[in-house]
Amino acid sequence: MKVLVDEMDDGWDEKLCELGYDAYSVKKLQKDGHKLGTDYSIINYAKENTMILVTRDTESGQACDENELPCILLDNDMIFKILVEQLKKF
Q1: What residues make up the domain containing 51?
Q2: Domain at 19, CATH number
């Protein structure tokens, strides 16, 4: 499984690789010369390379849903659920 980490979470690709995932960063791919400056190009790159997109960008998440592309949207609702679960530990 290949994972594409959107710009906002650059560095997570390295952590995922340490856990055995085949992960890539949009930011690092841009530095390597890939033209990934728009949501469309990022989503298209993920599709063409059979990747799961990890993003906080709601529009990208919606575009993936509409086009049945694999995506993990880390929106505020998901982050809030994680926060509440962590608070329950105290």
Answers
A1: 2-87
A2: 3.40.50
